[in-house]
Amino acid sequence: MEQWNVMYDEQNLDVEVAEPVTKPFEGNGEVNVYELPRVEKMACIVHNGPFSTISKTCDTLFEWMKQNNYLADGPIREIYHKGEWATNNPDEYITEMQIPIK
């Protein structure tokens, strides 16, 4: 299905990294600081395993959205619950993917 690749443009890739912080601080020319907007409806799925197989999980999420008549209403958010900082085994990685929907 690979529908999620429609949003990917290798030449003009816009990436944001969200990191929770414990206290407010000002951004600078390289770092912007802002609160993620509240999302009313979010389709979510948890991927267990290496990043090399995450596209199959994403395809499953988009297929569920299609079958339930939902459209993406914003960029995909990924939350890395367990990764290389916690284990040397990629099969133990846990990644949550969230997509705002309408």
Topology diagram in text:
Elements: E1 42-48, H1 54-67, E2 77-82, E3 94-100
Antiparallel strand pairs: 1-3, 2-3
Descriptors:
102 residues, alpha+beta, Multidrug-efflux Transporter 1 Regulator Bmrr, Chain A, 1 helix, globular, disordered N terminus, Effector-binding domain-containing protein, GyrI-like
Shape: globular
Structural class: alpha+beta
What is the CATH H-level superfamily? Answer: Regulatory factor, effector binding domain
CATH architecture: Alpha-Beta Barrel
How many helices? The count is: 1
**Helical coverage, percent range:** 10-25%
Percent of residues in β-strands:
15-25%
Instruction: Compute the number of strand runs.
Output: 3
Regions with little confidence, pLDDT below 50 for 5+ residues? 1-5
CATH topology, anyone? Multidrug-efflux Transporter 1 Regulator Bmrr, Chain A
Q: What is the string of helix and strand elements?
A: EHEE
User: Class, according to the CATH hierarchy?
Assistant: Alpha Beta
Number of domains: 1
Beginning-to-end CA distance, first to last residue:
21 Å
Note the main sheet. 3 strands, antiparallel
Arithmetic mean pLDDT? 86
Which strands sit side by side, in order, in the main sheet? 1-3-2
